[in-house]
Amino acid sequence: MEIGEPQELLNPQNTTETEGSEVLAAIFSPLVSYDESKQPVEEAAESVTTEDSKVWTIKLKSGYTWHDGTPVKAADYARAWNYAALQDNAMGSSYFFGRIDGYEDVHPGEGKTPTAKEMKGLKVVDDLTLEVTLTAPFSQFKTMLGYTAFYPMPESAIGSDGKITQEYGEKPIGQGLFKMDKPYKKGTDPTVELSVYDKYPGKKPTGWTKLQFKVYTSSETAWNDLQAENLDIHDSLPATAIATAKSVLGDRYFDEPDAAIGYIGVPLKYNKDFENVDIRKAISMAIDRKTIADTVFSGTRAPADDFINPAIPGYRQGACEACTYNPAEAKKLYESANGPKTIELGYNADGGHKEWIEAVANNLRANLGIEVTPKPFEKFQGILDALDAKEYKGLFRMGWAIDYPSAENYLTPIFGTGAIDTGSNYGGYSNKDFDDLVAKGDQAADAAEGLKFYQQADDILLKDLPYIPVYFYRSNFGHSTKVKNVKLNLLNQVEWADIEKA
User: Fold this and answer.
1) Radius of gyration of the CA atoms of the chain, in A
2) Nearest residue to 138 (alpha-carbon basis) of 66, 205, 56
3) Are 285 and 279 contacting, i.e. CB atoms less than 8 angstroms apart?
4) What is the DSSP string of 229-297?
5) What pLDDT is attached to residue 71?
């Protein structure tokens, strides 16, 4: 299978992007997965229960073992979550543990020193039971548990210095369907090599035992390899392939609904050129989303008109007024707001984004009368690193594939104030009213009440436009003649156990 190079070593608690997550999803089993109606169902967990949405009891299924044969215990989850949350460890996923009681003790914020090493809200009751106490009720907690950050961690992952070892990052020991055959040396190894773990208690594939992730810097090269049968699965076909993929692959080509969103990101906190909301609105109104969706993507994208994707409850058609194409109004607004005369538009060249970014650049040149320069980064890792370091000051291509099926997941991790330092809030957007409304949604008595608050928080995003939604994804993937029954789950990860040799 094709992937782009993971941003970090293969450590679940520090992996918040899709390439590394795809590999880790093969190595680990989540506590919950999701059914056809997008509801969480127990996988490595036997049960996840609560009476008040504040204190949660997670019981583990017996029979799961680490790839070295030792039993998986509740303490392995507590270890992983505490490690991720501790500020000194600087893990990319730490923000996901922010609702657990005691998080502020282990992660007090920039310039402050932690007063504890473990969160008081995590209690190991016995080998198979973990009790989690949150600071406030959060009805979506069970739904979150399918995300990469909530995988467990074996004791052997931690070195004598109290830190995750380089060896573990290169060859993590998981408790999932596949084990790693050898260490993966990021930056030099062209593949990640895995084998089916014999003692895995869940469903295993029939007729094959080896899985190889092949690292590409060009989606087009991967498409060529798929056509030449040198690759079995390509799960994100480039825009250049979509027009012909159906005729080339026949029933081996898939075009399915997807819960992801493609944005133009704005470095609000780091570039004063974009701080006037009218500039952002003008840029948004200057983008011809329908033509990009129809022409560049051959109709396999939909113009975005909300920050919440239609696949998830909470989406409202036409919610984003500034997402309506209006070039005349855009130019007038841009000029009156004294928008910048030159703009750089960064994107990762390994993800098949060149065509639509250049289309956006052409829209902005023609409709705003400005100079726009697309800037390719060779790898997704490159632009993420530049954004993490707060170094990149141009507009940037960004996408969001959901971590778990909730409207809240389109809000907190990307636009919450707490996600600036440790989440995916690359633009540095901060709005107290937004944070407060999300918190009210989190603490609502039921999902319907919570959704009202999440939509009110969404309304603030629609007014502020910290990012500019451009399109809703569809999942465009294909496979070789050598395999059959290829399916992607809600998180856009391959369901490996279902695949058979053709």
Assistant:
1) 22
2) 56
3) no
4) TS-SEESS--HHHHHHHHHHHGGGEEEEEEEEEEEEE--TTT-GGG-SHHHHHHHHHT--HHHIIIIIS
5) 98
Question: How far are the Cα atoms of 64, 126, 431 from residue 92, in angstroms, in the given order?
Answer: 27, 29, 21
- Nearest Cα neighbor of 179 from 164, 194, 201 is 194
User: Which ranges in 5-95 belong to alpha helices (H)?
Assistant: 18-27, 74-85
Task: Tell whether the torsion through CA atoms of 425, 427, 428 and 433 is positive or negative.
Answer: negative
What integer pLDDT is reported at residue 350 of this predicted model?
A: 85
Instruction: List the structure tokens of 150.
Output: 């909530």
- Is the four-CA dihedral 356, 357, 361, 363 of positive or negative sign? positive
CA geometry: angle at 84 spanning 78 and 86, to 5°?
Answer: 100
Q: Which residues pair with 48 in a beta bridge?
A: 58
**CA 139 – CA 442 distance, rounded (Å):** 6
**Cα 431 to Cα 143: distance, rounded to the nearest angstrom:** 25
Look over the chain and give the mean of its residue pLDDT values, rounded to a whole number: 95
Q: Which structure tokens are listed for 477?
A: 């993937």
Q: Tell me, rounded to whole angstroms, the distance of Cα 431 from its chain centroid.
A: 22
Which pLDDT value is given to residue 446? 82
H-helix or E-strand spanning residue 126: strand 122-126
pLDDT at 421: 83
Residue type, 470: V
Query: Does residue 69 come out as left (phi exceeding 0), alpha (psi in the -120 to 50 range) or beta?
Result: left
Taking each helix axis from N to C end, the angle separating 327-336 and 277-285, rounded to the nearest 10 degrees, works out to 160
User: In a 10 Å sphere around its CB, with 0-12 CB exposed, 13-18 middle and 19+ buried, how is residue 255 labelled?
Assistant: middle
Closest CA to 2 of 242, 264, 215: 215
Strand 395-400 vs strand 253-265: parallel, antiparallel, or unpaired? antiparallel
Give me the residue label for tokens 């059959």.
484
Q: Please tell me whether residue 139 adopts helix, strand or coil conformation.
A: coil
pLDDT at 490 over 90: no
Give start and end residues of each alpha helix (H) in 369-466: 380-388, 412-415, 419-422, 432-442, 447-464
Strands lying side by side in the sheet with 122-126:
45-50, 55-60, 129-133, 122-126
Q: Which residue has the tokens 């493609």?
A: 262
The answer to whether 469 and 305 are in contact (CB under 8 A) is yes
Whether 286 and 331 have beta carbons less than 8 Å apart is answered as yes
Token pair 């570039």 is at which residue?
A: 271
Contact 241, 224 (CB under 8 A): no
* CA–CA gap between residue 435 and residue 276 (Å, rounded): 21
Alpha-carbon distance 500 to 502, whole Å?
Answer: 6
